[in-house]
Specification:
The complex is a heterodimer of chains A (402) and B (510).
Chain A lengths: L40 E7 L5 E2 H9 L10 E6 L9 E7 L2 H14 L1 E7 L13 E8 L2 H7 L3 H15 L3 E8 L1 E6 L3 H7 L6 E2 L1 E6 L15 E3 L2 E7 L4 H9 L11 H14 L4 H8 L4 H4 L4 H14 L8 E7 L2 E6 L8 E5 L2 E5 L2 H5 L7 E3 L7 E4 L18
Antiparallel strand pairs in A: 1-10, 1-16, 2-9, 3-8, 3-10, 4-6, 4-7, 5-6, 11-12, 12-13, 13-14, 14-18, 15-16, 15-17
Chain B lengths: L10 E5 L9 H5 L5 E3 L6 E3 L9 H5 L5 E5 L12 H13 L4 E2 L14 E3 L20 E3 L8 E6 L2 E6 L7 E3 L3 E3 L9 H14 L3 E2 L16 E5 L8 H4 L4 E5 L10 E3 L6 H7 L7 E3 L9 H15 L4 E6 L4 H10 L4 E5 L8 E2 H6 L4 H14 L7 E5 L5 H10 L3 E4 L1 H6 L22 H4 L4 H26 L14 E3 L4 H7 L2 E2 L5
Parallel strand pairs in B: 11-21, 12-13, 13-14, 14-17, 17-18, 18-20, 20-21, 22-23
Antiparallel strand pairs in B: 1-4, 2-3, 5-19, 6-22, 7-10, 8-9, 15-16
Helix pairs in contact in B: 4-14, 8-10, 11-14
Classes of the chains: A alpha+beta (402), B alpha/beta (510).
Chain lengths: 402, 510
């Protein structure tokens, strides 16, 4: 055992590593300290034909909602961004210091085959400081390891994800999905986008988030998106049912360590979509369930279905104000709470589906969509990658009979 | 000196002769015969030693001429040997018997509910106005699968999801408040009628208790849970099928581990027919079921009842005792669809005072440990938890649900709504309010329609209050409060109790 001073887990900051104030401010950053209105802002765009878009698009969209954040958190998730390693689990790591990095690398090397690793490329940006060490690893799971552990590959990766986050002091997995990655930190989203050089990536799905933290102080790991496997969540709102959602997930083996309600959204999607194999639109109806007064008016078979869904998944009902965008290997879903207490606008133009907290954020990157609308409370907006256009094999594509 | 008693009356009844109209109503109203009209003076002469402070005479005196007060008789002070304990000694020295009492434990133990505080929303998450937005209290009791399977079926031009999983039968209740078991025999038929009518109107459940189901209540069967207790009074195939669910009563919070005793005086012809026992005989329920001496025996009875009823839900009622978590887990694994937990403050028609006041644990702790245990074992969805025994208000209901109960059962509160004043003399069979009696001149005092209306009002009022609480918490469905310890804080509980409850002290944020 190496004896070393205790570190404060969660801060992920290393004293004395402040970046000198050298870089230019991103051109779209307006006066940062003015006009803080409160609320988070989020966006998502998915090209259903699998055509890749520059990450700059997502950054520009978020920049237009600058006022919705307070500079204490911004982040993006991109899908299809690692065409050279599409089958590898891309571990995006944040380290508070070298020790955390050594511990994590020891852990990863022991449990995975790392085919490639590198620092996550960044550029110095004014406004971004105290960033942790950022590194990414492209990992494979050897078949023997699954044999030994009797776990599915996905469960194996989830275990590692939870192990590192809860077990290694000062290490945080930002994302560990295939052909995707989360880029997040403390700063305004456009600063984060510039910092992570997102203009150099191209992906078929992008989600973005600007944060106005209320429940947890601004820290790098606490920025959105929150990820697990190929799932990523950006979230505006507060989950008032957090207490029971957390206990429900804990009884299914999830470890909730991040002190934030967004975490439960990610894990609930994982539970319902991956482990219970519910079609995504059904999972959305469990998370933002229709009201009994509406169920009572449904035809008998629908009534039976929704009654069962609500009674079985009651502890997973997400209650309270929220708008979330879920990024998945095979698409994107946006969802509002059951009485729409947070803004969410959607638009479609050709193969592209857009969602955002404000319509202006969509029109910033798609000035004249064919169609734009305000999704109703609890009614999911679902974008699905066209299977033909989609390179990597999807994890679970909901099958629809037409 | 055999006739001398040392126990002095608990209350003093006084008639204000300036106000008294000599109408004699007090004498007529009192079931215990406190008031006797003096033929010479025309005034009532109260015998305070019989008074239970039930206020029947006070309520019906047209002149408000009756005063019932505590007997101020002084006892030499002792913190240790209270006057109540001295009186108990005197009564037992006089009789040589077990002291009986009705209603729930009235001793000043810590009332945990009164040390728990609920949360509310401010700014960062909005509260919801229940007068303007839907607020859902509907609850389904019974066994639910851990997950559902879905298939798609054609629907117009597209398709729609359809349930592939076969669900067990569930009990739908419109508010998370059901009625606890109170047997016909211990309470009057008019009480049962009131409860049945109210349950139907409220969309909730009444529970027969262990005394069988009177034929008059057949029309209410969708809202009746029939109980099968150790005495098996009134239990036959038609009875088991006469309700929407069956409850096996293992124990009761007021008297864990002991049986029941309905005195022969309360077994009149109708009770005798319903219970299927001879008129005038004591109805003695054994302490254990004589066919249940272990958990596997319970499993056999659960499945026997399911077979007999075409797989209606089976509830198992147990008293909250020290090992309640492990017992409840066994009960769920034995196949129960509902575990009904009865805390140590639960009511009764008659129980040995020593048991009522000294056995069992508070329901708050039982809910928490049972809920956690079932979650730890991954079987929480397999059964619903009903909490009872000391639920006095909608706040208690909300707190019990936040601790992990699916619904609460109430009994004493219902009787209070019907006029009960908690005089604790149910076992005497002379209830002046016509509740805990079979004497026709007393039972006719309770008009079932009036009773049903009072109960509907009470439960409706509590449901409105629950909606207000949920709205303040910023959620619009009761399942988002259920088991959410995060929405509770404790005030003045010791650390270990807090840990058992899974509740943080007030002042701690998220």
């Amino acid at each position: 055992m190496i004896d070393r001073p205790a570190r404060k887990y969660g801060g992920l900051t290393l004293p004395g590593t402040k970046i000198p104030d050298v870089g230019p401010r991103p051109s779209y950053t307006v006066e940062a300290e003015e006009g803080i209105l409160g609320n988070c802002g989020l966006m998502g765009v998915c090209d259903e034909a699998g055509e890749r878009m520059s990450g700059e698009l997502a950054v520009r969209s978020m920049a237009s909602m600058h006022d919705r954040g307070n500079g204490l958190g911004g982040g993006f998730a991109g899908y299809g961004i690692y065409p050279d390693h599409p089958e590898h689990y891309a571990f995006h790591m944040m380290y508070a210091d070298e020790d955390a990095r050594q511990d994590t690398e020891f852990y990863l090397a022991r449990h995975f085959t790392i085919d490639h690793e590198e620092p996550i490329p960044t550029r110095a940006v004014r406004g971004i400081q105290d960033e942790p060490l950022l590194h990414r690893y492209f990992c494979r799971v050897e078949a023997e390891r699954l044999q030994e552990t009797q776990l599915s590959e996905a469960d194996y990766v989830v275990h590692a994800f939870m192990d590192i986050n809860s077990g290694i002091d000062g290490a945080f997995v930002a994302s560990a999905g295939r052909n995707m990655g989360a880029f997040k930190g403390v700063g305004f989203p456009e600063e984060i986008g510039e910092f992570y050089r997102l203009d150099e990536y191209a992906g078929w799905t992008w989600t973005g988030h600007g944060r106005f933290p209320t429940n947890t102080p601004g820290w790098w790991g606490g920025a959105h998106p929150f990820c697990l496997l190929d799932y990523s969540i950006v979230h505006n709102g507060e989950i008032s049912s957090y207490g029971i959602n957390k206990r429900y997930l804990e009884s299914h083996g999830y470890q909730l360590t991040l002190r934030t309600d967004t975490e439960v959204v990610t894990y609930l999607f994982d539970l319902m979509l991956r482990r219970h194999e519910l079609p995504v639109e059904v999972a959305c109806r469990a998370l933002a369930a229709p009201f009994w007064k509406d169920i009572d008016l449904m035809p008998a078979d629908d009534k039976e279905f929704y009654t069962a869904l609500r009674t079985v998944y009651g502890p997973g009902l997400l209650n309270g104000p929220f708008a979330v965008v879920l990024g998945m290997a095979d698409g994107m879903v946006a969802l509002n709470d059951r009485i729409k207490l947070r803004p969410l606008v959607a638009a479609r133009d050709g193969n592209r589906v857009y969602v955002a907290s404000e319509e202006s954020a969509i029109r910033e990157i798609c000035p004249k969509p064919e169609k734009s609308w305000m999704p109703r409370a609890g009614e999911p907006v679902i974008a699905r990658l066209n299977a033909a256009a989609f390179g990597a094999a999807p994890q679970s594509v909901p099958v629809e009979v037409n | 000196m055999a006739e001398v008693t040392f126990t002095r009356p608990e209350f003093r009844v006084r008639i204000d002769k300036e106000l008294c109209q000599q109408c004699g109503r007090c004498a007529h109203q009192c079931g215990w015969g406190v008031h006797k009209m003096d033929e010479e003076t025309g005034y009532p002469v109260p015998d305070s030693s019989k008074c239970g402070a039930c206020h029947r005479c006070v309520t019906f005196c047209p002149a408000q001429a009756i005063l019932v007060e505590k007997n101020p008789l002084a006892y030499k002070h002792s913190d240790s040997f209270s006057p109540d304990l001295r009186k108990a000694v005197w009564r037992q020295a006089e009789t040589g018997g077990v002291l009986l009492a009705g209603m729930g434990n009235d001793k000043p133990y810590l009332r945990i509910f009164d040390h728990l505080l609920l949360d509310a929303c401010q700014v960062t998450n909005p509260s919801i106005d229940p007068l303007r937005e839907p607020m859902e209290l509907r609850t389904f009791l019974g066994r639910k699968p851990d997950k559902i399977e879905v298939e798609y079926v054609p629907d117009g031009n597209g398709s729609k999801p359809k349930l592939k999983t076969e669900m067990d039968r569930l009990l739908q209740i419109e508010t998370p408040i059901v009625f606890g078991g109170m047997s016909y025999g211990s309470v009057s038929l008019n009480v049962h009628r009131s409860l049945a009518m109210a349950a139907k109107e409220l969309g909730t459940l009444m529970n027969t208790g262990e005394g069988g189901l009177h034929a008059d209540l057949q029309p209410y069967q969708d809202n009746i849970v029939v109980q099968c207790a150790s005495g098996r009074f009134g239990v036959h195939a038609d009875y088991l099928n006469a309700g929407c669910a069956v409850e096996i009563k293992i124990g009761q919070g007021a008297k864990p581990g002991i049986g029941g005793h309905l005195p022969g005086e309360k077994i009149n012809e109708e009770v005798s027919v319903t219970r299927m026992i001879p008129q005038g005989t004591d109805a003695l329920s054994p302490a254990p079921h004589h066919d249940i001496y272990s958990i596997e025996d319970l499993r056999q009875l659960i499945y026997a009842l399911k077979e007999a009823t075409g797989y209606k839900p089976v509830s198992v009622k147990i008293a909250a005792v020290h090992n309640v978590a492990a017992i409840a887990s066994g009960v769920v694994r034995a196949g129960a669809d509902i575990v009904y937990l009865d805390g140590f403050r639960g009511g009764t028609g008659a129980a040995p005072t020593v048991i009522r006041d000294h056995v069992g644990i508070p329901i708050e702790l039982a809910i928490s440990v049972v809920d956690q245990r079932l979650r730890d074992e991954g079987i929480r969805n397999r059964a619903s938890v009903i909490a009872a025994g000391g639920i006095r208000s909608s706040a208690d209901v909300a707190k019990a649900i936040a601790l992990g109960a699916d619904a609460c059962a109430i009994g004493s509160a219902l009787l209070v709504a019907l006029g009960c004043h908690l005089c604790q003399k149910c076992h005497t069979g002379s209830c002046s309010w016509g509740i805990c009696t079979q004497k026709p001149e007393l039972t006719r005092r309770l008009d079932p329609e009036w009773g049903a209306e009072r109960i509907v009002n009470l439960v409706t009022a509590w449901s409105h209050e629950l909606a207000e609480i949920l709205g303040a918490l910023g959620v619009n469905a009761v399942e988002s409060l259920r088991g959410s310890h995060e929405r509770l804080r404790s005030l003045g509980l010791d650390q270990q109790t807090q840990e058992i409850l899974g509740v943080k002290p007030a002042g701690i944020g998220h």
